[in-house]
Amino acid sequence: MKRAYPLLVAALSAWCLLLSAWAQAEPLRVGSKRFTESYILAEIVAQTARAAGTTAEVRQGLGNTAIVYEALKSGQIDVYAEYTGTIAQEIVKDPAHTSLQDLNRALAPLGLAVGVPLGFNDGYALAMRRDMAGKLGIRSLSDLARHPTLRYGLSNEFVGRADGWKGLAQRYGLQAQPQGLDHGLAYEAIAQQHIDVMDIYTTDAKIDHLGLLVLEDDRQYFPRYDAVLLYRQDLPQKHPAAWAALQPLAGRISEAGMIHMNAQAELQGQGFAAIAQQFLAGGAKGAAPVADKAGSRSGFAAQLWQRLVADDLWRLTGQHLLLVLISVGAAALIAVPAGIALFPHTRLRALALGAAGVMQTIPSLALLAVLIAALGMIGRIPALVALTAYSILPILSNTCAGLAEVSPGLRHAGSALGMTHPQRMRWVELPIAMPTVIAGIRTACAIAIGTATIAAFIGAGGLGERIVTGLALNDSALMLAGALPAAVLALLSELFFELWERYLRRQRMRR
Predict the structure, then answer these.
(1) Alpha helices, DSSP H only, in 29-99?
(2) Engineering a disulfide at 140: which of 149, 216, 381, 446 sits with its beta carbon 3.0 to 4.6 angstroms away?
(3) Between 3.90.180.10, 1.10.10.10, 1.10.3720.10, 3.90.1720.10, what CATH number should domain 313-510 receive?
(4) Would the pTM count as exceeding 0.85?
(5) Which residues are listed as membrane-spanning (predicted)?
(6) Rg, C-alpha atoms of the chain
């Protein structure tokens, strides 16, 4: 017994050392929202940490504030760039908290903290075309109330925010019914004169590029949105070297510098990582003129081809295929046995098909948001659960439909030969129903390939990453570079199932 104690102490010590080594090896996970500036700031944070010897991974384009905040709170990411006004309004839900000290006191019970003010304010504002504003005599938000017929195209997040459209409309007496638009697409819409007024971030690069006038907030509705790092309280202890390296970022990014970096991405088409690397090397200190990327490209087709064959093609395609195969496989393992069990029970079968049909009607982004809150995580797990749920209905309904095609005479014949119910199902009913079941799996694959692109909104990877980034940059070529490979996967899936069905038909003819 005495010899056991030293062995136990040694084992516990070794286990503690292993845990410590694992904790030190755990990467710093940096998140971002789904707009240009957030992508760039995430790369700056990650590259700064890597320069200090810390392994860092970036989870880009996770969505709006609610999704990224949930990822931070649940430990899926460790830090991301946020804005003081957003923290006060959307997270702490107390506009009176304006200082870092106040915000840290309010965030402490959540296990979060805020620090490293980056040096610039990126506020919300409304803007319209300068020529139209001059024609109508509009210079401030108060002037908008005199023109109720103006068309508003506002980002969906701004429409729903506590510091967004609802409060703004009340403060200024605006009666318009805004149209919800993706922030990147709204710039194209206002340039094409499909809308008259849009919400902007004051560091957006396209404000001057498109000749927009930022309307004066003459009643001081919008708070300040100073850029800071929102992080988990244990970050300084888990990654001390990275945390020390991040401190010199305080005050380093000016508003002009941020506008310049946004322009490098949106107008020149430079990559986020390259922009961050240039900034950390000492560039992007001012707002030097940035050429429009349209002037330097040799044509849309050439740009599209460059995007299509980029280095990330096979990685993203592999991630996309993995999401589809796992989700459809899981749905088949659930739906086919369920269809067999429910087929004899008419009421239960109708109830199950109705429930699966209701699940199919839930918008994919809404379902993903619910799953993030329920599971407390982002990434592939909630994406796989959602894709599996969407794949169940076609497989379940086709399994029941295929079994209904088996004639009563064949069932009676099987029973007359002395077959048990499982034997009759195995040798008579399922072979007849199999083509219809395969058609259901075929439909589920087509649905999953298309829906899996949405998974990129919560950091699950796949070809949707290109689409999400393209939306943020309003880059049509990049969006197509994500959509076209997904379409090719859908066509290959159809070809595979067509060949499989032909093979099964030949097998039945031989028998």
Answers:
(1) 36-51, 65-73, 84-86
(2) 216
(3) 1.10.3720.10
(4) no
(5) 321-343, 350-378, 384-406, 427-458, 478-500
(6) 28
